[in-house]
Amino acid sequence: MNYLKRSVVLRILIGVGLLFVLLSKGLQAQTLTAFEVEALSEERVQLAFAMTEKASLPKIFQMNSPARIILDFVNVKSALQQKRNAINQAGISNLLAVTAGNRLRLILNLKEYFSYALKVQDNKVLLVLEKKKASNPALLANRIDGEKASVIPQQAIKKVDFRRGKKGEGHVLI
To answer: Is the pTM of this model over 0.70?
Structure first.
């Protein structure tokens, strides 16, 4: 190859390499770097989850048996040193951080039932938990970014029936 052809090929390779570096940086997932637990009062506690970039609201849901609050972050990885992080204060047992694909799930194992408020502040996701005394934990009010979240009422199975389909398959009716 002559000098001109080598120069053009070299410039193309450098351009493709730079494009690859820029794209890979743009596709990198955000990272959870740390979390802090702060007691705001006897009844309220705040968890702050620090991210590498501007944070966005995760999907959040609550389980009653056992008592848990679960946060799902999309395109977020965990840089926490441990998968299971002991907290053992303010009614919170531990925090479990599980990464699957491009999703990070944080599971807060609780000792009692809490209502929650969730908001984003720059590169932090703030979760404020408040102890509630309620006979039915499913009726606790929760807020996401200042708005009330709908809570699914307690449900029960009243009847189970089995039927045979046209091709001999079984159907379970609940």
So the answer is: no
Long-range contacts of 78-81 (CB under 8 A, 24+ apart): 78/31, 78/32, 78/104, 79/31, 79/32, 79/33, 80/32, 80/34, 80/35
Contact between residue 96 and residue 109 where contact means Cβ atoms under 8 Å apart? yes
Look at residues 160, 153, 121 and name the one whose alpha carbon lies nearest to residue 139: 153
Rounded to the nearest 5°, which phi and psi values hold at 105? Answer: -110, 125
pLDDT in tens, 1-32: 576 777 777 778 787 776 666 555 544 568 88
Domains of the chain (ranges, CATH numbers): 29-149 (2.60.40.3470)
Amino acid (1-letter code) at residue 117? A
CA distance 26 to 81: 25
Q: Which residues partner with 146 through β-bridges?
A: none
